[in-house]
Every structure is written in C-alpha cells, then in structure tokens.
Design a protein that fits this description.
By secondary structure, this protein is of the alpha/beta class. It folds into 2 domains: 108 residues, Rossmann fold; 210 residues, P-loop containing nucleotide triphosphate hydrolases (Rossmann fold), CATH 3.40.50.300. Helices cover 42% and strands 19% of the residues. The protein has 15 helices and 12 strands.
C-alpha cells in the first residue's frame, strides 16, 4: 500500500529541489514527496495520480491547478499574495524548512479527519525507550537527549519530555506556540487527525524531533493514564516514527504501566545512601505491584559528569560530542553485539 502524495511546486528550481531534499531526509513525513518546477508537469501528474497535499508557490497557482482533485492546497507565499488566493491557507516561503513543514502540517491537520486505512504508515516497528529514575539531578534528560540525537542519525526519532518542569523554552531561548498540553487536549477530543495535528507542533534539534513540553506542572499531574496510553498507542500505530523516547517524570499517572510499554528502560543512578534508598524503594514497589518485567528491562547507569559549559541554546547539540555522548554510543554498540 503506497503513501499518499505530498507535492511541492515552485518555479524556483533550486528552492523546490532543496525543499524536496529536506523532506526526504525527514523520516517522519507520512507522505511520498514529489517536486515540480513547472505548472505543466504538475498538472500532467495530477490528472493521473491523486495528490493529497499540495504546497504551491503563489506564482505557480492557476485555474488549471484549482480544477485538479487535490485533497488540500497550501500556498507558498512570498508575503503578499493575490486576493483570489485568500481562500487557501498559506505559509511564508522564506523561513526555515522545518518551520514551513510544521506550518503545512498544522494547516493539513486543522481540517482533515483521517483514518489509518486512508493513510497507511510504512515502517517496520516502533521501539519505545523509557528514561526514568526516582533519583534527581542524575543527568536523566541529558542522557535522553543524547540518546535521541544519536539514534536520529539513522532513524525517525520522537522525543517526549513528560516532566513537570522541563525548562525547554528557557533552554532553547525561544517560545513555542503549541506544546504537549495542546496535544493532550486533542487526544481527549478523539477526532481522528491527531498525528497530523502533532506534526504541526513538531520541533527539531539536530534531526531529533520533539514536542515542546508542558508549561505548567498541572498539565502533567492532571493527565490520566488512559490519555497517556492513547497518545502513545496513536504514535506507535499511525506515525512514521521508528523510535519514541519517553523522558518520564515522577508525576505521571500510571508510571508502572508506562514503563511496561517500553522495550528498554534506562535508569541513571547515583551512589550516595539517599539515592540508593530511593532506588530500593522503587524496586520494592515494582515487585509489590507485580511488574517484575520492568526490572528485567531496566539498565542502571552511572553517567559520566557533564559540566555543560556551552551556552544554553547550544547545550543539546553539544551533548553529542561530550563524554556523555561517548558513553551513550558505547552502550548502543554493546547492545548491538
């Protein structure tokens, strides 16, 4: 079963081809990408093959294109476009390709009600990694981000931070118009286009995709396990991600159930008496609640100290080349043997 077609048409050859290259590198795009640099080639293609999503420059848009049976048209605008194009959503052309893709997917997800049958996902399996520790200040999030970036060099990886205080806006030095709180709202709506709404929220750092974390702790504490379960299952079943990394905080409802969904659990630990006691308490609770498989899948780690001398906005990418990065690469190498 083939993917649906996402066509890009721009009369600027370099822009169209470069944008197509970017899309093809994004392993999470649930479409087959086709690029056109002439209106004639687009029309000829569209008469024979259904185009589900078309991103077309304002200069290329014409009556013949409008007459094609296209699922959704988004205008690639240079700032000001003719009034007759106002009926179509538009995205600004001269911005980062990642921002263009995010806005296009947001436009698509805003109106489309989709089903798994209509939109097949072509991938092998989705592996869930859980990063969790009852111990604080143990480099848990730094490890999760390092792992994600390394895996994202070869696979489509989604990172989800499920902590009460993630600090991502401060770390990234920018605000986010939508975040995990909005995605959880859409989960509760059950309107069938969750993945496309999610794709409209995706941010990327060093090829690692992530949903901006919540801004208020109550959005973590107030989310029931059923909503977390539905979100994770939706991503596994209907997204194109091959790996999902869950950076799990202590306030998650149903934390044992969430850990049980993970193929592998990485647990950073410390050696001081208080930390050792917290780990022991956690393991006793796991046995009491009859989840021994969680312990069998858990790898405890004493992570190398990472000072984080880089500026906050460069911290995440700098993890790759730190001692922590070498440590994670060695873990993955041993697991592959």
């Amino acid at each position: 079963m083939k993917k649906n077609i996402f066509a890009v048409c721009d009369l600027e050859v370099d822009y169209a081809l470069n944008f197509m290259d970017y899309l093809n590198q994004k392993k999470n795009i649930p479409f087959e990408i086709q690029a056109f640099t002439t209106v004639e080639s687009l029309i000829a293609y569209g008469k024979n093959i259904h185009i589900e999503l078309l991103l077309i420059s304002q200069k290329a848009m014409c009556r013949q294109v409008q007459e094609l049976e296209i699922g959704k048209i988004v205008i690639l605008s240079e700032g000001v476009h003719p009034p007759e194009l106002d009926r179509y959503p538009s995205v600004y052309k001269y911005q980062a390709s990642s921002d263009v893709v995010r806005e296009v997917m947001a436009c698509y997800g805003a109106e489309k009600a989709v089903t798994p049958v209509a939109f097949p996902v072509l991938k092998k399996t989705t592996v869930i990694y859980g990063i969790y520790s009852p111990v604080g200040r143990c480099l848990k999030t730094s490890f999760a981000l390092t792992l994600g970036q390394i895996l994202a060099k070869e696979k489509a990886v989604l990172y989800l931070n499920l902590e009460e205080y993630a600090g991502f806006e401060e770390l990234m030095g920018k605000g986010f118009s939508q975040n995990l709180s909005d995605l959880l709202y859409f989960v509760r709506q059950e309107n069938g286009n969750l993945i496309y709404k999610m794709n409209g929220m995706i941010q990327t750092v060093n090829n690692l995709d992530y949903i901006p974390p919540v801004r208020t702790p109550e959005d973590i504490r107030g989310t029931e396990w059923e909503d977390w379960e539905n979100l994770i299952k939706e991503i596994v079943s209907h997204s194109s991600y091959e790996v999902v990394i869950l950076d799990i905080g202590g306030a998650i409802d149903g934390i044992f159930q969430m850990l049980d969904m993970c193929k592998r659990i990485y647990m950073p630990v410390l050696t001081d008496p208080v930390s050792v006691s917290k780990i022991s308490q956690f393991e006793n609770l796991v046995r009491i609640w009859d989840y021994p498989q969680i312990l069998a899948r858990t790898t405890k780690m004493h992570l190398p100290f990472h000072g984080g001398n880089a500026a906050p906005e460069n911290y995440i990418e700098g993890l790759l080349w730190s001692e922590l990065g070498d440590y994670v690469r060695e873990i993955l190498r041993k697991e592959r043997e």
